[in-house]
């Protein structure tokens, strides 16, 4: 082994200053120290002055006319440094220089020019001759500006071209759909993103107005034919939708065209803060299935909702669930006095408490672990907190599980609702809003039938109180809607998990269809319906167009960047017990009445007489305590005559 000190030093210097290490060191250099920038600027000024001086001396005109050369050169440098400080020309990171830095340099040099022109004028008035040639000073400062700006451009381009971490072969070649300020801002943000994800290769202009123009030195592509053909012409692999003037239908067309040819589709929200480029780049994300819902934004009657909730005590059951927790978040926005969040699931309820505490709201949050099946536990809650509004979202909702456990469906969905409704009357709750489901309409399973029985009970209780003019003034309101994207147990999280695992994606039937809405949208309509309700109504929501589940699965696979039935298989597993091919929002004998909100209607259902229904429900709850499935379901079919089991062992009870 060589122990010669000179050899070691030579090896150390070789490693330190090898091309690879030099490149790595420059790459890791976040910014040049300010004194280095100032030193380089002074060198540029000295060079510019020397060049101008020699140029004019060669023409026999002379740059500096006064004999005080040293003082003039010193003052020229000093005044330049003063205006550098004033305009902070050295404060920017050179590798990220922009037109703002160029403007600062221009202003500083113009200020120096104006200062010395004024000085020269007064000097001539005082001495009878000029201190320097004005033309020479102008050329000197033009050269200074060009030199100062040029070296910044060189440093910037050096970092971008030679020392950037970007490896073009690994970046996604992407076009940006749009040519407005939003699109430019997104392109700039992605250009400086670290680590980079995209290589922007052009902009798409839907208006066909900029065919021969360029933006950010990139071509503007005119959409004269289908988008995939345009993207193929520039070898693009994906598209970022940045044009906020697009309608939902236009966005859907773009997405469908791109997914058909397995192009990646990204979206970005409207950019309001263009200075924060890091934040902009982080907002560019894969387009989500929620973004493709053919639905318009909901406009809420905030005044009426606020009147109902502001400074009130609100009880929300099932608060730890996907619907209940979103109701909590939205109710918080209307500044109630107290929100009592009740659920039997300890960990999700604890997580919700931590989330609400982090919001730093003035509203008191009281968490209660309790089961709606226990009337004694619920009575303690009503006695302690005296709620004025109740949102009842606690329920068992998984169709196959309830088909196997009908007693639990009755004890939670029916008895739990009855407990809450009875206590709401006893403790003079102003409004009771129950969250129901479209599966309660012409039910084909135990879960849907249990929710229909709960609907019947709260309706009949309100009708009885009205007819008897009892002391109960509680307004009972039911809201009924379909599947909610992203809720616990919905197909979207299931499909996402299956795709992440490489498939297969399982669907129960190739012809099955469902209505979908987002969790926030569903909860907004629950609040709106609760505010407008006068009692006894069943509100149904406009669910938009039905979606074929197999089409939903294919679209989600394509959005994840895979090819359906090739890279990710779709497997038909057969209908589950109690499952329909399609859901309804109204039964065969019902009609609807419009409300002032175009997305909310009132279902006119046949209302049951309370006394008989109450007896029937008490008997059903009693039977449920014996866990005899056939007896329970038989009684349910008597209470809900339209309950016809499908794909279930209980079909024999319909004969």
SSE blueprint:
Elements: H1 5-16, H2 19-28, H3 34-58, H4 69-87, H5 99-127, H6 134-161, E1 172-177, H7 181-191, E2 198-205, E3 214-215, E4 218-222, H8 227-233, E5 238-241, H9 248-260, E6 264-267, H10 277-283, E7 285-286, H11 302-309, E8 313-317, H12 322-332, E9 338-343, H13 346-358, E10 364-369, H14 375-385, E11 389-392, H15 399-404, H16 406-426, E12 431-437, H17 446-468, E13 475-481, E14 483-485, H18 491-500, E15 505-507, E16 513-514, E17 516-518, H19 519-532, E18 538-541, E19 547-548, H20 549-559, E20 570-572, E21 591-594, E22 600-604, H21 610-624, H22 629-639
Parallel strand pairs: 1-2, 1-5, 2-4, 5-6, 8-9, 8-11, 9-10, 11-12, 12-13, 13-18, 14-17, 15-20
Antiparallel strand pairs: 3-4, 6-7, 16-19, 18-22, 21-22
Helix pairs in contact: 3-4, 3-6, 4-5, 5-6, 7-10, 11-19, 12-19, 14-16, 16-17, 16-21, 17-21, 17-22, 21-22
Q: Could you describe the 3D structure shown?
A:
By secondary structure, the chain is α/β, with parallel strands linked by helices. The protein is built from 22 helices and 22 strands. Strand 21 and strand 22 (600-604) form a beta hairpin. Helix 3 crosses helix 6 (134-161) and helix 16 crosses helix 21 (610-624). The radius of gyration is 36 Å and the shape is elongated. 37% of the residues are buried.
**CATH homologous superfamily identity of the largest domain:** NAD(P)-binding Rossmann-like Domain
Q: Tally the structural domains.
A: 3
Average pLDDT rating: 81
The beta-strand count equals 22
Distance between the termini: 95 Å
What fold name goes in the CATH topology slot of the largest domain? Rossmann fold
| Helix run count | 22
CATH class of the largest domain, anyone? Answer: Alpha Beta
């Amino acid at each position: 082994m060589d122990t010669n000190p000179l050899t070691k030093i030579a090896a150390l210097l070789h490693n330190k200053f090898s091309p690879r290490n030099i490149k790595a060191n420059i790459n890791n250099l976040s910014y040049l120290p300010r004194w280095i920038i100032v030193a380089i600027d002074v060198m540029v000024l000295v060079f510019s002055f020397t060049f101008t001086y020699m140029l004019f001396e060669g023409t026999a005109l002379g740059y500096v006319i006064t004999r005080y050369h040293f003082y003039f050169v010193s003052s020229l440098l000093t005044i330049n440094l003063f205006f550098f400080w004033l305009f902070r020309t050295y404060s920017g990171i050179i590798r990220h220089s922009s037109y703002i830095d160029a403007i600062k340099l221009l202003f500083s040099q113009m200020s120096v020019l104006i200062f010395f022109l004024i000085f020269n004028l007064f000097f001539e008035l005082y001495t009878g001759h000029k201190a320097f040639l004005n033309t020479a000073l102008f050329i000197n400062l033009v050269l200074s500006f060009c030199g100062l700006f040029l070296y910044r451009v060189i440093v910037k381009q050096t970092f971008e071209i030679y020392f950037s971490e970007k490896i073009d072969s690994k970046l996604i070649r992407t076009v940006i759909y749009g040519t407005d300020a939003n699109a430019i801002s997104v392109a700039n943000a992605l250009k400086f993103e670290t680590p980079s994800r995209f290589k922007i290769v052009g902009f798409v202009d839907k208006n066909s107005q900029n065919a021969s123009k360029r933006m950010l030195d990139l071509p503007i592509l005119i959409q004269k034919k289908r988008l995939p053909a345009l993207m193929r012409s520039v070898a693009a692999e994906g598209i970022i939708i940045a044009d906020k003037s697009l309608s939902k239908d236009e966005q859907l067309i773009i997405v469908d065209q791109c997914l058909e040819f397995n192009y990646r589709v990204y979206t970005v929200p409207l950019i309001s803060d263009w200075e924060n480029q890091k934040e902009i780049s982080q907002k560019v994300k894969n387009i989500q299935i929620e973004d493709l819902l053919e639905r318009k934004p909901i406009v809420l009657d905030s005044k009426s909702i606020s009147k109902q909730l502001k400074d009130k005590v609100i009880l929300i059951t099932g608060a730890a669930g996907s619907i209940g927790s979103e109701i909590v978040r939205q109710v918080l926005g209307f500044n109630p006095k107290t929100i009592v969040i009740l659920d039997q699931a300890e960990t999700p309820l604890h997580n919700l408490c931590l989330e609400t505490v982090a919001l730093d709201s003035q509203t008191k949050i009281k968490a209660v672990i309790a089961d709606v099946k226990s009337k004694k536990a619920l009575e303690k809650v009503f006695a302690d907190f005296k709620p004025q509004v109740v949102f009842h979202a606690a329920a068992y909702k998984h169709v196959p599980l309830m088909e196997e456990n009908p007693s639990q469906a009755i004890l939670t969905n029916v008895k739990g609702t009855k407990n809450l409704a009875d206590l709401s009357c006893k403790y003079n709750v102003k409004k009771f809003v129950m969250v129901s489901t479209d599966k309660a309409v012409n039910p084909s399973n135990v879960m849907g039938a249990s929710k229909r029985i709960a609907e019947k009970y709260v309706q009949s209780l309100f009708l009885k109180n009205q007819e008897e003019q009892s002391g109960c003034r509680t307004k009972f309101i039911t809201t009924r809607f379909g599947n909610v994207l992203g809720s616990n147990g919905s197909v979207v999280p299931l499909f996402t998990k299956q795709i992440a695992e490489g498939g297969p994606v399982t669907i129960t039937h190739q012809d099955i269809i469902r209505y979908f809405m987002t969790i926030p949208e569903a909860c907004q309509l629950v609040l709106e319906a609760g505010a407008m309700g006068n009692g006894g109504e069943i509100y149904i929501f406009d669910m938009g167009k039905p979606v074929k589940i197999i089409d939903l699965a294919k679209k989600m696979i394509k959005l994840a960047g895979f090819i359906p039935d090739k890279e990710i298989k779709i497997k038909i597993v057969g209908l589950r017990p109690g499952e329909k091919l399609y859901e309804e929002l109204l039964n065969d004998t019902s009609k609807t009445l419009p409300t002032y909100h175009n997305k909310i209607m009132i279902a006119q259902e046949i209302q049951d007489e309370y006394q008989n229904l109450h007896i029937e429900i008490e008997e059903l709850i009693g039977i449920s305590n014996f866990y005899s499935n056939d007896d329970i379901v038989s009684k349910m079919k008597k209470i809900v005559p339209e309950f016809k089991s499908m794909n279930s062992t209980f079909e024999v009870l319909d004969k």
